[in-house]
Structures are given as structure tokens and as C-alpha cells.
Amino acid sequence: MSKKLDSMNCCSHEAKETHSHSDQNGHDHEAQNESILKMFLPAIISFLLLVLGIYFDIYLSQSWFSGWARILWYSIAYLPVGFPVLKEALLSIKKGTIFSEFFLMSIATIGAFAIGEYPEGVAVMLFYSVGEIFQTLAVTRAKKNIKSLLDQRPDEVTLLDENNKVSKVKSETVQVGQIIQLKPGEKVGLDGILLSDFGSFNTAALTGESKPDTKKKEDVVLAGMINLTTVSLIKVTTVYSDSKLSKILEMVEEATSRKAPTELFIRKFAKVYTPIVVLLAVLICFLPVLFVPEYSFSQWLYRALIFLVISCPCALVISIPLGYFGGIGAASKNGILVKGSNFLDILAIIQNVVMDKTGTLTEGVFKVQDVVFKSELNKNEILKIVNALESQSTHPVATAIREFVGEVDRTIIFEEVEEIAGHGLRARTNNKEILVGNFKLLDKFSISYTIDPESIVYTTIAVAYDGLFVGYITIADSIKEDAFDAIKKLKDLGIQTTMLSGDKNTVVQFVAQKLNIKNAFGNLLPEDKVNKVKEILATKQTVAFVGDGVNDAPVVALSSAGIAMGGLGSDATIETADIVIQDDRPSKIPMAIAIGKQTKKIVWQNIILAFSVKAIVLVLGAGGLATMWEAVFADVGVALLAILNAVRIQKMKF
């Protein structure tokens, strides 16, 4: 279809390629207006000549306006809109595609000329061409909306060299480790780490969220964010082509090539449908000679031509992809990246949403809640040792302990440091053994304790020193503020929710109770999560899995639709996922499903509208009760109505 649009409206590319840089806005607007005028100019010329010809025919009869002069006039009126279609029909035939839309319109309009219906022949081609222009503009706008929402990368950045001198350089020339300077109002050109003490950024281009995001020193900032406050310094961590925004753009470009089953079916249907329609038109023209006593060739040819015009599948072929374009655009506008129209269809029929806990429903930022040590021990000394040992690990728990205790005491020396997978850390200091981890670690080294670990709600870090149980530290992860709303909306949509986590079961059940989730399972390894999803899939139900960690990648790939939390999520999960939520907000999960459902609803409305109107007018046309004007409405009119319906989704609020 894109080839068709390009060939008939060569100037449409100018509109499609207009840039969004502020210093070019005026020029771009003028270029776009000029482009649209060029697109409509042939139709305007044809329309004026057609109206004048009809005026001569009906209201102001002219003696010279007859015979060859009249034929020539209407032929000249026909050529501006008819020539591109005739040319495309010939090119399609040369390439082996005989029964195209161009072929149908060419036969119908040339046939109208053959039986002397010159004004109708011009009118059919004129309205068809105008419909095609509107279709081109609608598709161009949908594509441009998606691109403008995401393509926020500045071409140049301000580079700060070793001598603190600034210079403007191309973004793609900046290397990892170099420092860029960002003034208030400027966009971040490359992913990096904030070197300034703090900064406030508008992240709407990436997340759809207009609320400013405050960053502190060493926080990650991404290409596309806008600096709102003071001058900021950023240390580049990824080159231009590898930035998260670049990957998002690649995903969006690929999204338009991944077709939904409905879209693929309509394309295949059109290839079979068009030859059948041509055969039926031939039968309508010639078969009545066997049954109709007063058979008139011109009368039945006219009916056959009406049949051809009505049956042109334009409304279906263009409005359905446009509906999916609109759905992808609406999702992008809200910070949800859908990697293909096929995934919008899947979202529309999701029955189960299975979610990871940490980083999906909770913040993924742990904080120490309580320290319960035996009273006879020096609590501060033990905490310093625990903090020093945990500093050897990159686990979020270590960060929580460091924030609670303070700076690591580097005078504490460890020997025989050992990290035991799934248990915790073991080391020796001052010739005494220190164990920091879960209670399974204490069991492994036969350390006795008198408490029941399952009675503690929060994540628990057990500590043993010199062969004796010291006590424990509780750590909790706060629930995201919109998590409860997300679960409620999913239930309102009739979707079953399940929470899976590798965290201890008491913590999982506590969070599940807070969020009103009935199905929740803890103490799970990655393979356990896979098995849980397989169990649901075995019941022939659709499953969307939402996760953020690298260990979620296998289960994301397995599910009917994999959803990744894109802000904090790992690259592996984001690349594996079918849908990416840019701002990590769980409320975007029901929103994505609602967009999928609305897109599918609009697509089917268009299919039913097109088939219903065409079927009615086809029957009327075959029976001689419909003229070319009804045929034009059944083709171009329905196509325009379908387009207007399809673009509606881009204006909706979810």
C-alpha cells in the first residue's frame, strides 16, 4: 500500500519528512502547506473543469460543446487525476499484479467514457483521487505522530574538554567517558550519569509523563530528557547509536512492519477478492443476454461498472493499517512502546496478567526497617562489620544497609570472603567467622536460633558472629503509589492477576494482601516463574507477564505478551518484551490493554461498515437501482468515514 501512496502522491514525502527543530518550524510549516497544495492541485483542476463541463451540459448549453469537443473537454478534466492511476495500473500489470485497485478504477472510468457517461467517469476518478490524498495525509500524520513523540535527540551537544573548554560537536562523534554540558531548556543528547549535585528533567518524550523528575548525583539520565533548572554536567555512558532512545526508535520503526493477523488477512483477502469481483462484473455485463428479452449492452455495462467501483477494497486496505498506526501512536503518547500491531491484538484478548513484585509493583528500592540484635552485643560494631562485608556485594540489600549505617569502615579487613548463591555472604575478621544472609545460611553452618523466620513479614537479613546467632535486620521495599489502582483497573477489565517473586513468601503475601491480589507466590527461582506461566498457558488462556529483571527475560519470552518496565528494566528484558512501559508505572498495564481493546474495536467497526455499505450498494447496483454517485459513496465515502473513525483513537484519553 505504501508504494501506491508514494506513486500517486509523490509530494507526500515532503510532509512526512518535516523536522521538529524549533528554529525550522516556520520553514517546515510553509513546506508542508506547499506540499499539501501540490497534492490537491490535480484534483482542483479536474474539479473546476468537471463543474464547468456540467454547467455547459445542463445550465448554459453551448453549440460547440458537443461531439468531439465535449469528449476532449472531459478527457482533459480526467487526465490530472486519471493519469497517475492508469500509469500505476500498467506498472502493476507489468509486475504481475493484474487485479489491483488501480485496474478496477481504470476499467470503471474508461468504461464510463465508452458508454458516453463522461461526467460520471471524471467524477469517480476525481473522488477516488481525493480519497487517496486524505488517506495519504492520515497515514503520514499517524507515522509522524509516532516519530515526533520519540525522536527527541538533538543533532549537536556541548562537549566539555579536559581544559574545561566548551565546544559544539555532533552527537554521534561523542565517545563514552566524555563530559557534556547541558543548559536549562536543552535536551540530553546521549545517555549518561549526572555529575552535578542535582538536576530536574522533563521526561515526557520517553515516558509520556509531564511531571518533572528530580535526579541526584550519579543518577542515570537518558537521551531525550529536557533539563529544567541549572546547568548540568553529564558523563556519557553510551554512544549515540546505542542510547536507549535510539533503541526505542528502532523498535518503533520495526513496529510498523509487524502486522496484526486482521491486517494480514485483509491483504490476502483483497488479492483473492479483486479477481472475483472483476469476473462477477463481466458476468453482470454479458450473462443477462441469455435471460433478458430486451437486453441492452450499454445498460448492463453501466451496471457492471457501478459494481466495479463499489467493490474497490480501498476502505479496508487503508483504514485497517491506519487503525493500528493510531493504536501504536496512542500508546507511544502515553509512554507505552508497542513493538507491532500484532501485539495490540494480543493485548485486546489478554485474560491473565502475571507480574513480578520487585521493580514492577514495588519501587525496587530497599530500606532498613528495623535492627533486632541481642542486647548484650555492641550493635554499632556488628553493624559496621555487616556494612563492610555487604559492600563486597552489588545486591540492593547492600545499598540499603550502607544507606542506613553510613560510610563503609575500610579499616575492617576480611579473609576467606565467600558468596554462597541463594544464601548470603561468609567471611572471617579478627579470626572470627561472620555470616550475613538468609536463615538458610545459618542452617547450612549449623547456627541455632530461637525465632521463626516465617513470622517476620519483611525481607530478613540474619547475622551470626563467632558461631552465635546475633539477630536480624529487616528490609522492606515500598509499594508503588499507583500499584493498587493498576490492580483494580485490571479486575474491572475482567483480567485475573497473579504475582510471582523470588522474595520470601511472607513478604510476597504481605504485598499481595495490601494490593488485593489473590494469587501470589514467593521463594521462586526463574525456572519456577516459567513453570507457573506454563500452567496458565496450558489452560488455553492468554497471559501477559510483566517484569523488569534480567532473570525475567525467559518468562517474558514465553508469555502471550511480554511487558517490560523500561525505566529500571534490564536491556535483556526490554529487548525480549513485546511491550515496554517507559516510566515503570504499573497503571500503564491496564492502559496498554485498554488501548489494545479500543484499537481492535475500531478496526472491526471499519470492517463491518465497509462490508455492510458495499454489500447493500452492490445489490442495488446489480439490480439497476444505484448510479455511479452511490457507487462513489460506497467506495470513497466509506473509505473517508473509516479513516475518520481510525484517527479517533489518537484523540482518546485512556
TrEMBL record:
EC assignment: the record states 7.2.2.12
Does Ribonucleoprotein count among this protein's keywords? no
Domain P-type ATPase A stretches: 153-253
Reactions catalysed? Zn(2+)(in) + ATP + H2O = Zn(2+)(out) + ADP + phosphate + H(+)
Supply the InterPro entries for this chain.
Answer: ATPase_P-typ_cyto_dom_N, ATPase_P-typ_P_site, ATPase_P-typ_TM_dom_sf, ATPase_P-typ_transduc_dom_A_sf, ATPase_P-type_domA, Cation_Transport_ATPase_IB, HAD-like_sf, HAD_sf
Keywords tagged on the record: ATP-binding, Cell membrane, Membrane, Metal-binding, Nucleotide-binding, Translocase, Transmembrane, Transmembrane helix
| Entry's transmembrane regions | 39-56, 68-86, 98-116, 122-140, 272-292, 304-325, 607-625, 631-649
Compartments annotated for it: namely: Cell membrane; Membrane
**Record Gene3D superfamilies:** Calcium-transporting ATPase, cytoplasmic domain N, Calcium-transporting ATPase, cytoplasmic transduction domain A, HAD superfamily/HAD-like
UniProt KW tRNA-binding keyword: no
Q: Which family does it belong to?
A: Belongs to the cation transport ATPase (P-type) (TC 3.A.3) family. Type IB subfamily.
Tell me which NCBIfam families the record gives: ATPase-IB2_Cd, ATPase-IB_hvy, ATPase_P-type
- Database matches in PANTHER family: CADMIUM/ZINC-TRANSPORTING ATPASE HMA2-RELATED, CADMIUM_ZINC-TRANSPORTING ATPASE HMA4-RELATED
This chain belongs to the protein called: P-type Zn(2+) transporter
Q: Which organism is this entry from?
A: Flavobacterium jumunjinense
